[in-house]
Design goal:
Rossmann fold, alpha/beta, binds iron/sulfur cluster, about 350 residues
Amino acid sequence: MNTPIKAVGLVSGGLDSALAVAVIRRQGIEVVGLHVAIGYAAGIMRREVAGERLDALLEEEARRMSGSFGTRVLVIDRSTEYLDILLHPRHGYGANVNPCIDCHLYMIREAKRIMEREGARFVFTGEVLGQRPMSQNRAALGVIDRESGLGGLLVRPLSAKLLEPTLPELEGWLDRERLLDIAGRSRARQMALAGELAVEGYQSPAGGCLLTDANYAAKVRDWMAHAAGAPLTREETLLFSVGRHFRLSPTVKIVVGRREVENGYLEREWGRLWLASPVDVPGPTALVQGNATDDDLSVAASFVARYGDAKDAPSTRVAVRRGDESRTYDAAPAPEDLVERTRI
Ligand code: SF4
């Protein structure tokens, strides 16, 4: 009996990669799915903030994708390694801080590594020509082909007929005629194909990539402008997804929780720094990062007063703590102009 040809499919958890897997599998190819977790999936970050562990969440993703794709899917955590790509993308950013070309390249190189380890013959992705302005135009796909180190072993089954034939097609491992010619931003062909191939369960609860989100990007850019050589950490990138952020000075920033779960996160994970919260009424927790002066702490207390339940009262009693140190302020709510001037 012939051993089936094996391929590694890079999967995001969305419809396009699910279709790519189905299109390759229907040609009798054995598929190993690979999901590279770079750490900015909104749904995963939300659950981390709520106290769930990243490794458990990624295991859950692997089980869910394996189930819905009907094939083994490996999920690898690259959230720490990826920080360097976020800060120094060779091909620049998209509309926000999304380094999509570098990101695709990184994931495809990871897929190449898994291909070699698994004895697979080629790698494929769910990329669609012309679907995304930055990373899926013809020039960007060409850059990815050249720099990925895969030579002709990178297949885009959904747009293959619009692209040069790849080695798996030339070698006859794949029938080019049974690959597709989808291009552009419309999802109509994909939706029809999902019905035809009975592809379902592809809606990823992991959510969209926060690097494409303008609010999240503002926090990253603010960090870049004020880091002064400090290394970016995964903990910091998770904090960017939490609360309202205000910059008080080049070295001091405060983060005010918006919800109970965010206040809990700040208390749980950031207790080594100054934390402010109201004494007598419900209200937010505020984290103070940087070398805060007494003035900065009293300003942080005024933000707690502004967003607390006693925001209409002349003042709120606010406790500011760091380890064993503790101070109390009778803080008036921060005025509108201060909030607007400092908001990130
Ligand atoms: S949207 Fe995010 S995950 Fe997707 S390629 Fe761009 S940076 Fe990477």
